[in-house]
């Protein structure tokens, strides 16, 4: 997380304002203190997109693999909407068990000659 010191926070905001004034069509604000993201969003005319920054940004980004729970470790700012790693693991285990038991493939999954 960035912007803990007053000096660093001021620098981040000043850089964002400068980028906006230079003609940026949007600014991605990632992993800063929420107060910094809010200040930037209020000071620039272009849309701000937050990644672990603030719900007050104009939009949000999450990595699909993170939000779907494909991995055990996810950053603090990720909300896991699903446990796809668990779903995939369960499906693979079911498949492996059916192969071991010789219950897969069935007639439905084979070509009869």
Summarize the model shown:
With 113 residues, the chain is mainly α. The protein has helices spanning 6-21, 34-43, 64-67, 84-100, and strands at 27-30, 48-51, 59-60. It starts with 5 loop residues before the first helix and ends in a 13-residue tail after the last helix.
Question: Explain this structure to me?
Answer:
- With 113 residues, the chain is mainly alpha-helical.
- It has two domains: 1-61, no CATH class; 64-76 and 83-104.
- It is 42% helix and 9% strand.
- It contains four helices and three strands; from the N terminus they run H-E-H-E-E-H-H.
- The chain has helices spanning 6-21, 34-43, 64-67, 84-100; strands spanning 27-30, 48-51, 59-60.
- The protein has a three-stranded parallel sheet.
- Strand 1, helix 2 and strand 2 (48-51) form a beta-alpha-beta unit.
- Helix 1 runs parallel beside helix 2 (34-43).
- The longest helix is centred in the last third of the chain and has 17 residues, at 84-100.
- The chain is elongated.
- It starts with 5 loop residues before the first helix and ends in a 13-residue tail after the last helix.
- 14% of the residues are buried.
- The mean pLDDT is 93.
